[in-house]
Design a protein that fits this description.
The protein is an alpha/beta fold and 319 residues long. The protein has two domains: 188 residues, 3-Layer(bba) Sandwich (FAD/NAD(P)-binding domain); 114 residues, FAD/NAD(P)-binding domain. The chain is built from seven helices and 19 strands.
Length: 319
């Protein structure tokens, strides 16, 4: 039987932080990392993590994973397709204990405690041409795809911090970058807003919305809602994310109106033995440092939960 005291679903900063601490507590730990390193690997630079002045998103995500692996956590790069609560049937001290079963296409895994750090996925515009030209000029990752648009004209759709960061990334490769903002202002961090305002390659178009995306083999132009058209080689969508909480729903975890997992300060959910961390939770501030801290809380509480099940009073000394 594939049994682990703790299983973490999610290989980003939050999941790897949880795994690293769980492994330090001498818990046999398994992480399912469908997207190794998590969504932060699509970020160009991380410059607001205390103690690390500047680091690329891919490097940060991979270093978190490597730290957890070196501590003893095991990683599998598979997708969990289902999860359910079960009574464990095994030949160890957890026989008869309420736990969880998670399944991939190839196997089933059982655990006493489960941490959901499944994160988010990019939102789509839902306009004509978006699906047709995905990966043919339409992209959701400036860091990943900027190199394909050297000396081209592109636009970034969005008015938040991600849009500003993406515009700066693209300006390093592209001849011209338009930032299309639906409102009359942006919501970017001041430092990132100033960078795009000071960059001669970048032009911000306020009160501007895309109507449709057009082309032949790839994107050639876009149509705006005011009826005008603009020649364009690429469209980068940066309008936010949808929470990946499908597994939480299967497990009757309480969600808010945005389908975020509701947790307390100790990363606990309403389901005993089930914890959540990172962007999938209802934390208002979606940042790597917040998710990492929630991951640590999750593993600490999972350790204590297991200790209580075993009627032991010892507690970790690492925190």
């Amino acid at each position: 039987m594939n049994f682990y005291p703790i299983i973490v679903v999610g290989g980003g900063v939050s999941g790897s932080a949880a795994a690293m601490y769980a492994a330090r507590f001498n818990l046999k730990t398994l992480v399912f990392a469908e997207q190794p390193g998590g969504l932060i690997t699509t970020t160009h630079l991380v410059e607001n993590y205390p103690g690390i002045k500047s680091i690329s998103g891919p490097k940060m995500g991979m270093e978190f994973m490597e730290h957890a692996r070196e501590t003893g956590a095991e990683y599998k790069y598979e997708k969990i397709i289902s999860a359910e609560r079960v009574t464990l049937q095994m030949d160890n001290e957890f026989n008869g204990v309420d736990g969880f079963k998670v399944s991939t296409k190839s196997a089933e895994y059982f655990c006493v405690t489960l941490v959901l750090a499944t994160g988010t996925e990019h939102k789509h515009l839902g306009i004509d041409g978006e699906e047709e030209f995905k990966n043919k000029g339409v992209s959701y990752c400036a860091l990943c795809d900027a190199n394909f648009f050297k000396e081209k004209t592109v636009c970034v759709v969005g008015g938040g911090d991600t849009a500003a960061i993406d515009a700066n990334i693209l300006a390093q490769q592209c001849a011209k970058v338009y930032v299309m903002v639906r409102k009359d202002h942006m919501r970017a961090e001041p430092v990132n807003q100033k960078r795009i305002e000071d960059n001669p390659k970048i032009e911000i178009l306020y009160n501007t919305e895309l109507e449709s995306i057009h082309g032949e083999d790839s994107v050639t132009h876009v149509k705006l809602k005011d009826g005008s058209e603009m020649e364009m080689d690429g469209v980068f969508v940066a309008i936010g994310w949808n929470t990946k909480s499908e597994l939480a729903k299967e497990l009757d975890v309480e969600l808010n109106a945005r389908n975020e997992i509701i947790i307390n300060r100790e990363a606990e959910t309403n389901v005993p033995g089930l914890y959540a961390a990172g962007d999938v939770t209802d934390a208002h501030f979606k940042q790597a440092i917040i998710g990492a801290a929630e991951g640590v809380y999750a593993s600490v509480q999972a350790f204590n939960y297991i200790q209580n099940l075993l009627s032991q009073e010892s507690a970790p000394t690492e925190y």
